[in-house]
Automatic annotation (TrEMBL):
One of its GO terms (biological process) is base-excision repair, AP site formation. GO terms for molecular function: alkylated DNA binding; DNA-3-methyladenine glycosylase activity; DNA-7-methylguanine glycosylase activity. The lineage of its organism: Bacteria, Pseudomonadati, Ignavibacteriota, Ignavibacteria, Ignavibacteriales. It holds the Pfam family HhH-GPD. This is DNA-3-methyladenine glycosylase II. It comes from Melioribacter roseus (strain DSM 23840 / JCM 17771 / VKM B-2668 / P3M-2).
């Protein structure tokens, strides 16, 4: 996002939410860079599921290096399952990355015009891929496309950060998070609110879909 958009978002959130205002003051400006390597971003997202950031980064480095940092659908589909397993992928993730490659190759998932599509359309299209759920699609919207108003209510980090920062006794449900966001006027900058909530946990969110 452009710095002027970030500043507008910070002013909006600080004005409407005292908790976020404090987090913003304590952490300064958190930028949200975007990039257009959509296929690689999705591969990284699939490979990194249910892994620590350190483990995910290690496997992604091996995976990308094997394909000379330029994996494409054909090269992934032609790679043997055993080879991909040797790079650190589980049996399930081998199926997932190949399903992504196949759907992109056959045009069922069209990455070319993603930047012109609405958030809901992108989520609907990405969740056609095996192993890609709403959360993964939302991370793509945030960390690859830089969409400003994404609220990942099922993200454990977001739930934990809200519990700690807003003085709740238990992890909030998705509906509770939506009500909190509405009450405190996060929209149209829910993504930026999420970044500061992650930051409050010292989460290195910049590496999630780099």
């Amino acid at each position: 996002m452009k710095i002027i958009e970030i500043e507008r978002a910070l002013a909006h959130l600080s004005r409407n939410d005292k908790v976020l205002s404090t987090l913003i003051k304590n952490n300064g400006i958190c930028n949200l860079p975007t990039h257009k390597k959509y296929f690689i971003a999705l591969l990284r997202a699939i490979i990194g599921q249910q892994l620590s950031l350190k483990a995910a980064d290690s496997i992604n480095r091996k995976f990308l290096a094997y394909f000379d940092n330029s994996p494409d659908p054909d090269s992934i589909l032609s790679a043997k399952d055993e080879t991909l397993r040797s790079l650190g992928l589980s049996k399930a993730k081998v199926k997932y990355v190949k399903d992504l490659a196949l759907k992109v190759k056959e045009g069922e998932v069209k990455l070319k015009n993603f930047s012109k599509k609405r958030d809901e359309e992108i989520i609907e299209e990405l969740t056609k891929v095996k192993g890609v759920g709403v959360w993964t699609a939302q991370m793509f919207l945030i960390f690859t496309l830089g969409r400003p108003d994404v609220l990942p209510v099922d993200d454990l980090g977001i739930r934990k950060a809200i519990m700690l920062n807003y003085g709740l006794k238990n992890l909030p449900s998705g509906e509770e998070i939506k009500r909190l966001a509405k009450k405190n006027g996060w929209s149209p900058f829910s993504t930026i609110a999420s970044l500061y909530l992650w930051k409050s946990l010292d989460t290195n969110f910049e590496t999630i879909l780099k």
